[in-house]
Amino acid sequence: MSTMKPIKVGLLGIGTVGVGVWEVLGRNQEEITRRAGRGIVIARVADKDTERAKKVTGGKVAVTGDANEVVTDPNIDIVIELIGGYGVARDLVLKAIANGKHVVTANKALLATHGNEIFAAAQKAGVMVAFEAAVAGGIPIIKALREGLTANRIEWIAGIINGTSNFILSTMRDKGLSFAEVLAQAQKLGYAEADPTFDIEGIDAAHKLTIMSAIAFGIPMQFDRAYTEGISRLTREDIRYAEELGYRIKLLGITKRSRVGDVDGIELRVHPTLIPAKRLIANVEGVMNAVLVNGDAVGATLYYGAGAGSLPTASAVVADLVDITRLHTADPEHRVPHLAFQPDQLAAIRILPMDEVTTSYYLRMRVVDRPGVLADITRILADGQISIDAMVQKEPSEGEEQVDIIMLTHATPEKAINAAITRIEGLPVVTGTVTRIRLEELK
Fold first, then answer.
1. Taking the complete model, does pTM exceed 0.90, yes or no?
2. For residue 78, which phi and psi values (nearest 5 degrees)?
3. What is the domain partition of the chain in residue ranges?
4. Closest CA to 135 of 219, 70, 223
5. So what's the architecture of 7-130 in CATH?
């Protein structure tokens, strides 16, 4: 065994993930030491609930209610931040860096909003900020992008990176239930928070996508430019119709290189998406996560696993601890840069507004069942230079005057489809609004 003295860790927050980190470090201490070259021990824990923290740690370490004591403790080498949010967490992380400590965090909201500032501070202080656990829980996607695929020009990434919304969509499809029914079920099972906004409106996925996009393309974090659209308006009808056409609906985070005219851009968008049911990623169900990465040399690679939970996320946190421990003595110039590209080499490619994105679409409209209706609709689409790939007209129910028409379009700029939808909704024979869901072949 190594004769070096163990590296000392301060843990901020011993909730779900914190408990997992405590457990994994304890359980696998021997293997972790063999891999890291020296022991890794949690020396101090900060948590508001000091009683619970003492119970979890069995009185084996010093517990404090004040996280500031941990980030300024001269004996601590690495600080793990598991508090969440971006107020207090930002101050503590910056304070830890200023005190010369490496940081491991699972906080995607913090990095997506303040990552640029945090990485700049770490760079200046010569310390590392590791964040594998911030994206897709136990799946080592950050490492894959930063190191495994570093020979590639990444073309695009598409990921199911929010377990709550994936569970809701899987269950709606499986049981034919409405969004509201399944959300209530997810809350009962503890998969969804009492206030599920971050998950169901795509904000959590956008935080994670922002981080992956920065690493894939060597651009600064730009969460405020991400387009987000959630799943709360999806109906079981649309899920069923998509299925009939050979597609599944998933909430995807998509980031890709794009050219509009002769200008390079990056797409950064989270929204419900139809994908062919035969794709592997279309069959990722329940709370599982999966990320599909397309590189110019390697082609498509898929990373699948538990995107949340105590032990899977702890697996990523502890892997970061081992990484830092191995590199702790390496001079900062020889470490993998935070965003995979050298800090002075980040590109200023712009994030495209959604208007300028081109993709295919699923459109559903409810119309009065009478001759000439279809001709009016197709004329509007033709005027907008939108070509139709497939179309289904449903039979009206007994005694009903209205039918659903479903269309799949070929690739079309978002601006054109929005203009066409406005015109279609203006037709007297169309009732209510047109449902529009984007479609990606993911080839």
1. yes
2. -130, 135
3. 7-130, 141-306, 357-439
4. 223
5. 3-Layer(aba) Sandwich (3.40)
Range 339-363 burial, b when 16+ CB lie within 10 A, else e: bbbeeeebeeeebbebebbebbbbb
Classify burial at 122, counting beta carbons within 10 Å of its beta carbon; exposed 0-12, middle 13-18, buried 19 or more.
buried
Q: Which residues are catalytic?
A: 208
**Which residues does 15 contact at the CB level (< 8 Å), separation at least 6?**
47, 82
CB burial readout 242-259, b (16+ within 10 A) else e: beebebbbbbbbbbbebe
Q: What number does CATH give the domain 357-439?
A: 3.30.70.260
Element (H, E) at 33: helix 29-36
Q: What share of the chain is helix, strand, coil (3-state, %, to 5)?
A: 40, 25, 35
Same fold, 7-130 and 357-439: no
Give me the count of residues in the chain.
443
pLDDT in single tens digits along all 443 residues of the chain: 456 889 999 999 998 899 999 999 999 999 999 888 889 999 999 999 999 999 999 988 999 999 999 999 999 999 999 998 888 999 999 999 999 999 999 999 999 999 999 999 999 999 999 999 999 888 889 989 988 888 899 999 999 999 999 999 999 999 999 999 999 999 998 888 888 999 999 999 999 999 999 999 999 999 999 999 999 999 999 999 999 999 999 999 999 999 888 888 999 999 999 999 999 999 999 989 999 999 999 999 999 998 888 888 899 999 988 988 888 766 666 667 676 677 777 788 999 999 999 999 999 999 998 888 999 999 999 999 999 999 998 888 777 889 999 999 999 999 999 999 999 999 999 999 999 999 999 98
Query: H/E/C letters for each residue in 172-186?
Result: HHHHCCCHHHHHHHH
The alpha helices in 301-395, defined as continuous H runs, are 310-327, 373-383
Question: How far is 298 from 292, CA to CA, in rounded Å?
Answer: 12
136: left (phi over 0), alpha (psi -120 to 50) or beta: left
Q: Is residue 359 helix, strand or coil?
A: strand
The fourth-level CATH superfamily of domain 141-306 is Dihydrodipicolinate Reductase; domain 2 (3.30.360.10)
Q: Retrieve residue 6's tokens.
A: 């163990």
